[in-house]
Specification:
- By secondary structure, this protein is mainly β.
- The protein has one domain.
- The chain is built from no helices and 8 strands.
Length: 102
């Protein structure tokens, strides 16, 4: 599985939505051959680990939660996941770990 490194993500924000979900807004570096397919999630005893899946344009990549973005838009990708009581940690492809919630 190909995942984004910390250097390949321009911005990453997390917000709580009114419907009880967490919404990630992710802006990866613009690339012509890859897109953000979504995220793989894994649970540890005290955290949910999130890995951002970098997928080739002509490929379909397996993810647990899909990323959405308007075609031709310069807006960030959106990834929704259920609310959790655990911490959320983004694990990048270069082994950088970033706690983003709570």
């Amino acid at each position: 599985m190909n995942t984004y490194t910390s250097e390949n993500v321009d911005s990453f924000e997390l917000a709580e939505a009114n419907d009880g979900k967490l919404v990630f807004s992710v802006m990866p570096l613009m690339e012509t051959a890859y897109y953000l397919a979504g995220a793989k999630l894994s649970q540890t005893d005290d955290a949910v680990e999130v890995r951002l899946v970098r997928c080739g344009l002509n490929e379909t990549c397996e993810v647990d939660v899909l990323a959405t973005v308007a075609q031709g838009s310069n807006e960030p990708y959106k990834i929704e996941m259920p609310m959790t009581d655990k911490s959320i940690v983004v694990v990048y492809g270069d082994d950088v770990r970033r706690a983003v919630y709570p």
